[in-house]
Amino acid sequence: MQISENKLIKMKRSRNEVVKATVGSYLKRRHYTDTENFRKSELQLSQTNQQMAVLSAVDKEITRNNSIIFSTISNDTVQIDQQFTRLKTWISEIKSEDCKSELAALLCPLFCRLYLEMLRGGHRQSVAKFFKRHQGLFVSGEHSRELVEELACIYSNQDIDSSPTVKVFRSCKYRLHLSPSSMAALQKYLAQHGHVVILQVLQNWFDFEIGGTMRLEDEEEEEEEEEGEGEEEENYCRDSIVTGTNEKVGCSHKASDSEVELQELQDVIQLVREGPPSPCPLLLYTIMNSDNNVGCGYTWGAVDVLAAGLGSEVRLWGLTQNKMFSTPNPNISQVHLACDVSASQELSRPESNTVSLRGHSGPVQGIAQFPDGLLVSVSHDTTMRAWNKDDLSCAAVYRGHNYPIWCVDVSTLGLYVATGSHDRTARLWSLDRTFPLRIFAGHNQDVEAVQFHPNSSYLATGSTDKTVRLWAVNDAKLVRVLPGHKGGIQALSFSPDGKYIASAGEDKRVRVWDLAAGTMLLELKGHTHTVSGLSWSRDSECVASCGLDGAVRVWNIRSRPGSLSSVSYSSDLIAAYTTECISLLSVQYSQSNTLVCVGVT
User: Fold this and answer.
1) pLDDT averaged over the chain?
2) 228-252 pLDDT per residue, tens
3) 383 - beta bridge partners?
4) Which residues lie closer than 8 Å to 98 by C-beta, 6 or more apart?
5) Where is this region: Disordered (predicted)?
6) What is the rounded CA–CA span in Å between residue 5 and residue 13?
7) Do 431 and 389 touch, CB atoms closer than 8 A?
8) Contacts for 383 with CB less than 8 Å, ≥ 6 apart
9) 302 DSSP 8-state letter
């Protein structure tokens, strides 16, 4: 049977979208950016802190590359000179030596920043006067003297771009440590006398870190009142910005208590990060298997549909409150009109959210869903069928296997379908071809599990010959062979980050493999019967397993640094759920990271 015309048209229209999505996904994996963003980032500094530290001593005070693009402030040089002079005079008149020394460290980088901004704006004559008037402030400090001497050789925009030291300084923020009292005094001054240019420079190019032992005036007064200090000490605290020696000792003691509390909080946060995550809730759907003919059961993504193989038919249940499926017309040769159905018959018709898809001539063994909602099923009758959920019709039948098909999986983008069969092969399909595109031959016994890698470039197959094989999708070449299981493999699952694969089966154990090294990392024990389903959490840190013993187990997979730059892996059993089901058919993490399981009673 050929694919319906509607499906072919839909696939042709979506072909360009699939290509665009594939290219976009590739670029994201390679960490490329869009052209527009790349052009903007060309203006930003790309050097690391270590490279910048070699250029000059100024890098010792630089925090990190700034995300702000080079831009010249629209400025009035006369106002800038006046505002800088006023700020310098205010700092020099501060009575507290500690506060004065902290705020004085602001003048040199602010002077350099204003000098470069004015020069960038084309005010060469005003820049020369500004530099000559204020350069004497920075002769005493070694670091400031080196930077000012470097600025003395800068006369044009070309000189700015050619000087590594100045280029680094312009592209980075300046970190300045201030005590709370110093910061409060600076804020008070800026609120009363701050100019827009000064405020813009401080906001864009300075990174203030608040800390230290100095206290604000109100806090000092409250502390002295609580301690019952005399009237003379209280007046002294009101007149000064910082307290004397006795008060500093008390403040240091209190600061040390805060540091202890902060360290305890950091330890707790570290324990939470290193410890196992809390178990997620389990959502269990149970199928009443009175006839003992349920072969498989699955849910996907948003968990809005439950699909199961009941004998030779595919049964669908809508899991939402709204009716999911329209009732198909049983006789396609007749069209029912509104006059053919009485109102009483319409009202008495039961509201059902269940539908059956019939067409297979043998038991259904596997079901998979495409991103657009199309379903595919495999059966003992050696065929794979595609089902349209809109009209509940069979869109196509795919033939190629010579023996019963046990499993099926769809690639991440929905471009390919893989099947595994009793004929010891796995086959690659595309919906627009009714014959297989690739044949993966190499197993000695039945292929009972297939799984696409998240990047859709590799296919993993598990067999009753107790091995897991990894194949390249493009040329069907064998990439990895992972032996070690003591029984047939029934389930496979790749981690979302693509680094690991979990396998399980008749030996009642779950094995986690490192794909890059081709070695086993962990062996998880606990099930008492065959493991039938596996699923990784969205963060690739947990793997869930279910089995014919009716139990669900969730394991936390953690990597720990070992000796000689090696990495050791450990596992913790986060949760173990016991159900009343005879067997569990599948388990998966939903889009909301909820654990969803399908079982049979």
Assistant:
1) 75
2) 444 444 444 344 333 333 343 344 4
3) 399
4) 179, 182, 214, 242
5) 216-236
6) 12
7) no
8) 360, 397, 398, 399, 401, 405
9) T
| Spatial distance between the Cα atoms of 397 and 376, rounded to a whole number of angstroms | 10
Are 172 and 62 contacting, i.e. CB atoms less than 8 angstroms apart? yes
- 307/176: higher pLDDT: 307
> Cα separation of 381 and 82, whole Å?
90
Please report, in angstroms and rounded to a whole number, the separation of the first and last CA atoms in the chain: 36
Q: Can you name the residues that pair with 460 across neighbouring β-strands? A: 451, 470
Q: Does 46 score more than 80 pLDDT?
A: no
Residue 8: pLDDT band (50, 70, 90) is low
C-alpha to C-alpha distances, 354 to 326, 328, 350, nearest whole angstrom: 10, 12, 11
* Chain segment 424-462, per-residue pLDDT in tens: 999 999 999 989 999 999 999 999 999 999 999 999 999
* pLDDT at site 427: 97
What does the alpha-carbon distance between residue 313 and residue 361 come to, in Å, rounded to a whole number?
A: 9
Q: Which residues are bridge partners to 534 per DSSP?
A: 545
Query: Which of 96-105, 147-156, 388-397, 415-424 bottoms out in mean pLDDT, i.e. has the lowest?
Result: 147-156
DSSP annotation string for 101-117: HHHHTTHHHHHHHHHHH
Domains along the sequence of the chain with CATH = 49-212 (1.25.40.500), 290-324+352-533 (2.130.10.10)
Question: Do 366 and 401 contact (CB within 8 A), yes or no?
Answer: no
Nearest one of 111, 71, 133 to 198, comparing CA atoms: 111
Rounded to whole angstroms, the Cα distance separating 76 from 214 reads 36
Strand partners, 501: 494, 513
Tell me: pLDDT of 4 over 60: no
3-state helix, strand, coil in the chain (%, to 5): 35, 30, 35
**Which run of H or of E encompasses 502?**
strand 500-505
User: What angle in degrees, to the nearest 10, is found between the helix axes of 180-193 and 196-205?
Assistant: 150
Nearest residue to 412 (alpha-carbon basis) of 300, 534, 295, 490: 300
Is residue 559 within 8 A of residue 507, CB to CB? The reply is no
pLDDT given for residue 401 in this prediction = 94
Q: Highest mean pLDDT: which of 94-103, 212-221, 305-314?
A: 305-314
- Half-sphere exposure at residue 106, Cβ-oriented, CA atoms within 13 angstroms: 26
Please give the pLDDT value at position 232: 45
- Tell me if residue 161 falls in helix, strand or coil: helix
Positive or negative: CA dihedral 166, 170, 173, 178: positive
b (16+ CB within 10 A) / e for 534-567: bbbbeebbbbbbbbbbbbbbbbbbbeeeeeeeee
Helices and strands in the chain, H and E counts: 16, 30
Predicted confidence at residue 452, as pLDDT, reads 96
Dist CA 62 CA 53 (whole Å): 9
Give residues with Cβ within 8 angstroms of 62, minimum separation 6.
49, 52, 168, 169, 172, 173, 174, 175
Q: What are phi and psi of 458, to 5 degrees?
A: -135, 155
